Amino acid sequence: MAGDVKGPAKPASRRERARATRLRITRAAHRLFVGRGYAGTRMADVAEEAGVAVQSVYFTFHTKVELLQACYELAVMGEEDPLPPPEQPWFKAIFEAPTGPEALAHFAGGFGQIAARVAVLDDVVRAAMHEPEAVAVRANSEALRRDGYRAVAASLAGRFGLRAGLDVDRATDLLLVLAGSATYRQLVVDYGWDRDGFLAWLTASLAELVLAAGGE
To answer: What's the Cα-to-Cα distance from 62 to each of 42, 58, 59, 125, 168, rounded to whole Å?
Structure first.
């Protein structure tokens, strides 16, 4: 029918094309960093993997360390609606949950989304101790993660109470270890736990280790 005929698609704007190129390069870099390591990945390799000119990689990111930073940011914030974790719905839900276990379930769910994207990359970069630039990128990511987790621990302490003998700093340490890339990588990637089973275990373990008895 004539009414169903659509006109030609609107050409992508320069900003849309630039974003698509940036995303394609970042995805390619993530694959190569995971497969070859940080030191073993060259900007030319990223260009070839992404199907763009090497000049485009340098124009977009300038240095390999900036590219690694972009990989971390994409993995943490996601592609669909990229926002820092504290601005994402799951993080806000932690502070609105009526019970401690429900707050931890939101926390575990949000962590699971991020870990599925960043866990393997994080392990590779953590192993690159001889690459100070890569170490600095990971250290910055860890500092941001600690800040976010400490806010969660402080909320749990203030609203539901912490297990006897724990303060906010110790509770933060427990959150960092159990809800960390290494834990996710080992149980889910290496040992084959299904994601839902892992999240249920994480929620229950954190509730037992962090919350005061009866911390509802």
So the answer is: 13, 4, 6, 20, 40
